[in-house]
Amino acid sequence: MKALIKIDCNYWLLPLHSRNSGTLHVLRDAATGAVLRHFQADLVEGVPQLHACYPVGDFRGRTLELECDDPARFLRLARPVDTPPPNDSAAAQAWRPRVHFSVRRGWMNDPNGLCFEHGRYHLFYQYNQMSLTWHNSMCWGHAVSADLLHWHELDPALYPDENGSCFSGTAVVDTENHAGLNADILLFYTACGRVAPEPRPFTQCLAYSRDHGESFVHFAGNPAMGHVYGENRDPKVFFHAPTAHWVMLLYLGRIDGAHTYQFFHSDNLTDWREGEKIVTREASECPDFFEIVCVNAPEERYWVMMTAWGYYRIGHFDGYHFESLTPERSMLAWRHYGTAYAAQTFANTGERTVMLFWLNGDYPVQTGFNQSLGIPLDVGLKNSVDGLWLTTEPLRELASLRDGVFRYPEQTLDGLCRLRGQAFDLEVEFSGRCLCSLWLRGLECVFDPGRGEVRFDGAAFPAAEAGRPCRLRLLIDQGSVEIFADAGRQYFAKRALFPPEFDYLASFGAAEGVTSMTVWRLKGIGSE
């Protein structure tokens, strides 16, 4: 059924089920019938589990055609508003992370299109503003920051259109106007054609901005690259300066049982030529591919290929062929649901490499939001006696949030619990002499020197040689614990929901188990 709607507001406030999987609603140009957007909506009478705030301000003053099962019911339940209401319920405030990014409302997952442009960091991400769970009708959420910590959430940058919904991808800064679009930021994404109003294969599409990311326009020639194989997806696009051309790395899927990726090459970002294929043993989808300078040998530069589960190879890349110099290693100390996934690095940051993971795992339904991102990571590469390794540590800007400190042995371990807060940054060195545990806001973290192992909430990973000292850095926030071990070679992340009243840390075991400890309380970043 169809109805004409005059748009006279900036948003529709929609009452929905939290696991919205409703029927397709299509917005068309009333004059031409062209598909402008589509979304799924399972509207409810009475008190909703989720109030979604769907932006329509781009169409203000226009008459659109709404196609859905019951347009009259939709128009009765959709409340027009000009400003999104805050999600500031007591539950949202209690359970929201203090120093990690989370969306105002709705569901988020993979980070996409990370870049620095015109003095701002741009964070795009897979976003389902119409539900607290994932489903196929994804768009790209958008937030900006000056310091990688304090984020301002904008309206979504990309919405599903006639080519399908907007799956993962990348952003590039086209300073030389190679695409001929006079654009500053270009977004490449996979169009999930199976949920298009007229289903079609997965393709790679392009959108661009001419106002430094304030708004985006879909490329008139979409798809920018047609279907290649299966559910080909998650384009990673970058410029290779020595050969002066653009490269795309695309996940093709399983071919003959092996996870297969393929390079594509372009001079103008819209016409693509096929290149070599790469097969990996572990993980799938969401590739990242980036150049990095060796920390202890700055004259050496390498390329890193990484997959969604944090498996990576380090090698050389001549613009066409990737020669791996290392075995397939993992950046993650532990992999399971409720851990880190689908990392991407920021483009256009010079010699600095900054990476973001999605921390998958659910928050309570009553919060009105679900999922968060990991802390931004400064990534390094070191050439050690056992080869090339990636290292990670929390971004250096995190120090600006430190507020209040505990130090051992200057203070007694008994005094640790008096440093109250909701988020903490902790550096500890265990002597390796005896088993020692830390009480992290109600959950126990144990270092077992006999095994050289760290155990936390059912997970375990090796962090030192048995019987040897161990240095760890831990970030504790509402919703997650992140641990950095083995001089940054191992990054551990796990979902952890803490009752808000558990706002302290403690240390148990013999004092000789701890050589030193410094703990900072962290100020919250707030949410905008």
State the end-to-end distance. Answer: 38 Å
Low-confidence stretches: none
Mean pLDDT: 95
By DSSP, the count of extended strands is 41
What is the general shape? Answer: globular
| Rg (CA only) | 24 Å
In which order are the strands of the major sheet placed?
31-41-32-37-38-39
Number of helices, where a helix is a run of at least 4 consecutive DSSP H or I residues: 2
Helix/strand class = mainly beta
Give the fraction of residues assigned to helices: under 10%
Strand content: over 45%
Largest sheet: 6 strands, antiparallel
Describe this structure in words.
With 528 residues, the protein is mainly beta. Helix content is 2%, strand content 50%. The chain has two helices and 41 strands. It has a six-stranded antiparallel beta sheet with strand order 31-41-32-37-38-39, with no helix packed on it. It is globular, with a radius of gyration of 24 Å. 46% of the residues are buried.
What is this structure, in a nutshell?
With 528 residues, the chain is mainly β. It is globular, with a radius of gyration of 24 Å.
